[in-house]
Amino acid sequence: RVRGALLEELESTALWYQRDISHSSTERFSLPDAFGCLAYMARLLHTGILSGLVVNEDRMRQNVDATNGAIYGSRLLNALLDTGQIGRTEAYDLVKRLAQRALDGGPNLRELARDDPTISRLIPANVLASLFDPAFYLRHIRTAYRRLGLE
To answer: Is 84 helix (H, G, I), strand (E, B) or coil?
Structure first.
């Protein structure tokens, strides 16, 4: 239902300059309905899944390690783009090539990135190391737990 409401809203105004009061009937029905569905889904997620969730930290670490560092490819790509000295296509192709090598059983992506001449020229070693720190992805976890009533 939520996905359908999005389509209704997108279709209610095909062109930006066609917005007028005649489209409000769609909004008066679909938006409250969508938010009601989202609230129900959030409650169901909390009571049906999150409140009884048991996290196996060792298994999670194994899953992250199984990517051989490729899981951090998006951060590496963004860091390259943030330098402003490499285009998106070139940076994407570079990270993709290195990540694929890591996934294929080669060295860890962090090592491949460290040894790559383009990356080592653009990103200082200390910044590069920080890109592969899982703490970045966990920095808001306590806030999320608190908001979900899981702490």
So the answer is: coil
